[in-house]
Design a protein that fits this description.
The protein is mainly beta. The protein has one domain. It is built from 1 helix and 13 strands. The radius of gyration is 14 Å and the shape is globular.
């Protein structure tokens, strides 16, 4: 289950949403996946996963968003495998004043994005 996937957008705001990230056995799910985007803001959202979840789920993934200031601020992350993950180059990214509760990993800095990119390619090839 994927709530918001932003690919190459500029100066957009994701603000005051409740993301309930479900458990899907064997599948990766996320609240927001941002790829190659600039000047965005992710503000005052709630990202909540199921308790006792063993499948990979994420609150926010930010990948290759390296131009213009970006902000991830005042969000609440609960019951997730990885709450906030950054991938590859994300200059000028500001992540602050977020709350993290009962997550396996609050922040994960992944220097590459091969896992998520391969999942996205597989999804695109199987969609009708």
């Amino acid at each position: 289950m994927h709530s918001v996937t932003g690919n190459g957008f500029s100066f957009s705001t994701i603000d005051e949403n409740d993301f309930n990230i479900p458990h899907y056995s064997g599948y990766v799910s996320w609240g927001c996946y941002i790829l190659g985007s600039n000047g965005f803001e992710i503000l005052k959202n709630t990202f909540d996963g199921p308790s006792n979840n063993s499948d990979p789920n994420f609150g926010v993934i930010i990948n290759k968003s390296d131009i213009s200031p970006k902000i991830c601020e005042n969000n609440i992350f609960s019951n997730l495998n990885i709450a906030t993950q950054t991938e590859e180059k994300n200059e000028a990214l500001q992540i602050f004043c977020n709350q993290y509760h009962n997550n396996n990993i609050s922040w994960y800095i992944n220097p590459d994005s091969l896992m998520i990119i391969s999942i996205l390619k597989e999804m695109a090839s199987t969609q009708i």
